[in-house]
Amino acid sequence: MKAAVLTAPGTLELKEVPTPEPDADSALMRVRACAVCGSDVRIARHGNPRVTPPQILGHEAAGEVVAVGRNVSKIKVGDKISLGADIPCGNCSFCEDGMANNCQINYAMGYQFAGSFAQYVLLNRLMVDYGPIHAIPPGVTFEEAALAEPLACVLNALERTPVQFRDDVVVIGAGPIGCMIIPVAKAHGARRVIVIQRSPARAEMARRFGADVVITTGGADPVGAVLDLTDGLGAHLVITANPSPSTHADAIAMARNRGRVNLFGGLPANSRIELDTNLIHYKELTVSGAHGSLPPHHRRALEMIASGLVRVGDLITHRFSLDQTPEAFAAAQNRAGGRVVVEPWGRTDA
Ligand SMILES: [Zn+2]
Ligand SMILES: [Zn+2]
């Protein structure tokens, strides 16, 4: 089969590789859509401790089952399925406690296991038994189903720092993740969702996803702008959805007393910021991070997409063939766009 293989950090090569053959406990999926995540771009450029080249990246995927081992009963040939990324090891205290995204092994598709920038992807025994594999609901396309993975991460983040009824919620960064947060926060009862985003294209996208206020002067004084909108008190919940370290300090500065802050956006490795922790102390803030998701988040994400609550299809701005995977990565790196999807078998709908 054809696959885009990361042969070394910085080198993504299109190669002919053996098509995986499922054993009795595993299955094979024909990949119809795989979206390029910001983390894929970072791994392709700088590598990752959980990825040993040569490896096929890609963890936001959907397709159809083309072969199953004789012990597999969860899925069958012909099923149209969406895949999440994080796979519980099923065997540690975190996995036992239902927080497998904190599993210390942290198995994931496109990391330790070959991912979906390929014509086919192997669903191994762990993925089949414990992993996020869910049927694509009627009316949802393959490319929309692929975006259930990042939406699942949003649902995990909003569990860590819930939206409460009539909250003012600030989202810093209106990339695909930031845009997904907006309708979910509103559905959870937010009074206003205020988005901070300088790029005009992304500000427009945030408006289309239901942002009540878009602050486009973010570089100047985002904290002052949020305080102005909130009678000088700040927002109940602030979520970062961008890779800029300074926004972590901004988020803490613009949260109101007893507010919640979610440092959701990962930063480049070894980022350090200066922080006045007295702000957390005096304002009695709850500060959390969020990373990855659990299989139930993935299932609920698909339900949200099917219901029309989160119109993930509107986030897709570029589509590429498998041969063009390097171009797809370049497009994803250009932050002006939305989600970039690779379609290994061309344009097909579920
Ligand atoms: Zn992702
Ligand atoms: Zn585990």
Characterization of the model:
With 350 residues, the protein is of the alpha/beta class. It folds into two domains: 2-151 and 293-342, Quinone Oxidoreductase, Chain A, domain 1 (Alpha-Beta Complex); 162-289, NAD(P)-binding Rossmann-like Domain (Rossmann fold, 3-Layer(aba) Sandwich), CATH 3.40.50. It is 29% helix and 26% strand. It has helices spanning 38-46, 93-96, 125-130, 142-146, 148-160, 176-187, 200-208, 222-229, 246-254, 278-283, 295-307, 325-333, and strands spanning 2-8, 11-16, 27-36, 55-56, 60-68, 80-83, 86-87, 107-108, 120-123, 133-135, 168-172, 192-196, 213-215, 235-240, 255-263, 286-289, 316-320, 339-342. Helix 6 links the parallel strand 11 (168-172) and strand 12 (192-196). The longest helix is centred in the middle third of the chain and has 13 residues, at 148-160. It is globular and about 60 Å long. The protein starts with a strand and ends in an 8-residue tail after the last strand. One zinc ion binds next to helix 5.
